[in-house]
Amino acid sequence: MNDTRQYPERPIVGVGAVIVDEGKIVLVKRKYEPLKGHWSLPGGMVEVGETLEAALTREMLEETGLSVAVGPVIEVFDRITLDGQERARYHYVLIDYLCWPSDGTLRPGSDVDAAIWVEPPMLSEYSLTEKAISIIHRALTLAREAPRPVR
Question: Between vectors from CA 61 to CA 77 and to CA 145, what angle results, nearest 5°?
Fold first, then answer.
């Protein structure tokens, strides 16, 4: 895969999801940089002319095989990866949402090597970033408070 996201002229907007169902959440193992080979939350880039919600639902279907009902925003944050010369190799502005599966079967899609359901007490086994852990915990709190869309 040719990575045209390296050394961008401006930040790239991305969306991600904490997909929650029966107390479990979806994790994916990244196929490409950044975070190649690492477990993370599913997500991807917003395309020109695409709304955030449309990008999110498209990316979740592509990466996980799941159609999702989109809930509230969990957090908006920067992810900047510098190279050895302190230049921004990657610069994303990411918006993570709470989501629930509405259709489909979990399976790894185009940009991931694996997709799994994980119970929160098992998260430490997946070497997630501190930011991902924080977002997951915030999402689980929101999931207890936010009404789940009717299937």
Answer: 55
Amino acid at 15: V
CATH of the domain at 55: 3.90.79.10
* pLDDT single digits (tens) 65-114: 999 999 999 999 999 999 999 999 999 999 999 999 999 999 999 889 99
106: in domain: yes
Which tokens hold the place of 35? 């975070």
The letter for the amino acid at 103 is D
Q: Taking the model in full, what pTM does it have?
A: 0.91
Q: Is residue 2 part of a domain?
A: no
Instruction: For 147, list phi and psi in degrees, rounded to 5.
Output: -70, 135
Q: Tell me the three-class secondary structure of the chain, residue by residue.
A: CCCCCCCCCCCEEEEEEEEEECCEEEEEEECCCCCCCCEECCEEECCCCCCHHHHHHHHHHHHHCEEEEEEEEEEEEEEEEECCCCCEEEEEEEEEEEEEEEEECCCCCCCEEEEEEECHHHHHHHCCCHHHHHHHHHHHHHHHHCCCCCC
Record the tokens describing residue 113, joined without a space: 């090597």
Domain enclosing residue 33, as ranges: 12-145
